[in-house]
Amino acid sequence: MGQYEMFVTDVLVIGAGLAGERAAIESARNGLNVTLLSLVPPRRSHSSAAQGGMQASLGNTAMGKGDSPDVHFMDTVKGSDWGCEQDVARIFADTAPIVMREMAHWGVPWNRVTLEKRVYDGKEIHEDPEKVGLISARNFGGTAKWRTCYTSDGTGHTVLYTMDSIVQKYGITVHDRVEALSLIHDGETCYGAIVRDLRTGQLRVYTAKSTVIATGGYGRLYGASTNAVINEGTGMSIAYDTGVVPLGNMEAVQFHPTGIVPSWILITEGARGDGGYLLDKNGYRFMPDYEPNKKELASRDVVSRRMIQHIRAGYGVDSPYGQHLWLDIRHLGAKHINTNLREIATICRQFNGIDPVHELIPVRPTQHYSMGGIRTNIDGQAYGLKNLWALGEAACWDLHGFNRLGGNSLAETVVAGKIIGEKIAEYTKDVSLKVSTSLVEDHLLIQQKRIEQLRERKGTENVYDLRNRMEHTLNTNVHVFRTEEHLLEAVHELQELNERAKYIKLRGEGKGADPELAFALRLPGMIRLALTIATGALARTESRGSHFREDYPKRDDENWLKRTLAYWREGAKGPELEYEPVKITESPPGDRGYGEATAGAKPLVKQ
Amino acid sequence: MAGRELTFRIMRYNPETPEVKPHLQDFKLFEEPGMTLFVVLNKIREEQDSSLRFDFVCRASICGSCGMLVNGRPTLACRTLTKDLPDVTTLLPLPVFKLLGDLSVDTGTWFREMSIRTESWVHDDSEFDPTKQEERMDNEEALKIYEAERCIECGCCIGGCATANIRPGFIGAAGINRVARFMVDPRDKRTEQEYFEVVGSEDGVFGCIGLMACDDNCPVGVPLRGQIAYVRRKMASAGWKMKVGR
What's in the keyword line of the UniProt record (chain B) (predicted)? Predict the structure, then answer.
């Protein structure tokens, strides 16, 4: 068996972004022993990159007046195209304001309401003097009220730094630069994880009463993604690999309207929320023609489709990196751009050499968020395995259904972190840890063998070539607009890649903490996720939220008001799809008030 | 049109083979439009040497993972455009931090230790009351906290600091700025004397000899010169008061 380090803990949290840390804090406050694992130092987690903000119906601003959890709930359900769990959306909307205040108590420097004069979309905004100093909010897409709490251009950064400061205050154990390779389980119960130390390459064993996956999304499957390079869906993969835990709604992939061309770094929705326009090659503001009510601030799925539709109609701007459109924030003025949208200004100047105070920003819809993930119940317990939990982007809790509203995922991390964190703490107190040594060693051996096999270098396939093929097929065939023909092509190609991934040959020796070996261990799981996305998209013969089938352009509540559950059974060559009903507790499916159903599918351009 | 041929002279060291001394290795590739060191290093790893170690996470100058010495100057690799570089560029890992291999250094552990040493959290014993409205705060005050909170813990200020390079316990500009972040926060109930215990020493604010490379090197433009002056002033006065008090 060889030597390995072994750690025993009550609660093992895999992923130290906002969701993982918030859940860990709850367990630590309840006197449990917690260990947080992270690919990177926790403050470098992708949560830190969220610029925009967090939705919570505090209703402190003039433009948020009359807001309430009910309004927030309804926006979320409409945004999801009635694909979300309504009991989850309800508890989320009710709890979000409390959690924002708690974050303020812990140290987040939220922007506050001021009486400073402000003109928005031609109208002057007058704040209530009695609200001055309370938590402010900005406008985001798909919302009836201004509800997005923020700290200038760095909401994710400040909330993550504050959260991590509380992790330090409680003295929670953090092991960074480690990667979980598999879950230890017997098909019924989860007992922890087999983990690789990325400093040395050594394997470790962590056993736990409760194992929590909070590893974020899989954006890097697409290559062209706003996501950080660590967002490779590994947490989803290791749960999926058990053969008994299903992934929910993997075909629901969000494309953000404004990835900057060509580095695909995110230009926050705050840019449009604060009053930015989308322009075409003629400098014409086209969104009001398609979406007369919400204009640039319809939900992300709608804006992304309208943009591609407009490009297809011949109004795209040519560039060496394909056609794009323009984002225009010049009219917001230098002061606003350089403070509230400073991060955007920095990205434009540093990565594109343009000054958004005077110049247009090239943008195109880019993979951004995974609504799907490890399917859990409302308490965050994963389907299929006892003592396994998941939350945040890695999970399909299912707050977002088929489209997530901007500002709802960052809020989900901390709100779910509190709600599910409490459940984990409560539940773990009554668990006694009994794990057999042979079970642990069996799982360890599987990973040791994978590594040894790769080091023997007997395969034929280059790991980066396989990745490039996977990225290419997803970007070409499983993007904003989908058809049976393209999805079939993607499924076939990904099936082939899944076979080829068994014969990876390292270029180097793969010794110790070798980065190529780390990637070779990860890639097969990534391909399985990609195939699951394509397979789910092919099967779903309707259009709902971000999943738009050109051959089935209408939402079909009669046949498809249900959630996809994908299982990858032991030894199977592909996913097995099942479906479960969507929980509707308050709002029967209706019209979103924006998008093709309302404004018509045809372009309405009057240039 | 073929781009310039660029040479990258990169420091190689693998802690698992300590018998191979740290050395520089040259890699050549052709420049492409909009190319950054993020693109360059990944290309080298994928096409030329799969063992090359370096750290990127966000690749958008937000997360602070990729600090390194680019032609001797500490900066973020992700936002360094090759069009601003000469034909030959030397890449070295940031000094001061523990070297994990090639260009990868352990900034995470350093910053975690510094944060715990300076007790970088809001000190307030009151329990959060979920039924109450939030405490009010002036927006200007919030912006002032954010100004210091913007530090991304990349370590460029530390790698380029003369004191940090010779005094292992020195908390550097990042540490002093961190203390300033909590000093300006009205929610933190620590007294000047308590801060003095944390930062009123040669390993704290009085270790700074005022060369201010940190201020020049900060990739996100935290006003470190001002922050150091602010903490130094506060601590000098606290120290004086404590002396008089005795």
Answer: 2Fe-2S, 4Fe-4S, Iron, Iron-sulfur, Metal-binding, Oxidoreductase
Give me the amino acid identity at A584: I
Which chain B positions have a beta carbon within 8 Å of A45's beta carbon?
A: 57, 63
Give domain B5-105's CATH number out of 3.40.50.1820, 3.10.20.30, 3.40.50.720, 2.40.50.140: 3.10.20.30
CATH of the domain spanning B118-241, picked from 1.10.1060.10, 3.30.450.20, 2.30.29.30, 3.20.20.70: 1.10.1060.10
Of the candidates A225, A307, A317, the residue with the CA atom closest to the CA atom of residue A265:
A225
Question: Amino acid identity, residue A170?
Answer: Y
CB–CB of B41/B77 below 8 Å? yes
Token look-up 């343009």 returns A354
CB neighbours (10 Å) of residue A598? 15
Residue A203, strand partner residues = A196
pLDDT band for A354, please (50, 70, 90 cuts). very high
Q: Which of A601, A597, A599 is CA-nearest to residue A288?
A: A599
* Structure confidence by residue, pLDDT tens digits, B151-160: 999 999 999 9
Report which of residues A108 and B238 the model is more confident about: A108
In whole angstroms, give the CA distance from residue A398 to residue A86: 9
Q: Which two tokens stand for residue B175?
A: 């540490």
Q: How far apart are CA A349 and CA A171, in angstroms?
A: 40
- In A, which residues are within 8 Å of B52 by CB distance? 515
In this prediction, the answer to ipTM > 0.90 reads yes
Q: Domain ranges in chain B?
A: 5-105, 118-241
Q: Please report the number of interchain residue pairs, chain A to chain B, with beta-carbon separation below 8 angstroms.
A: 188
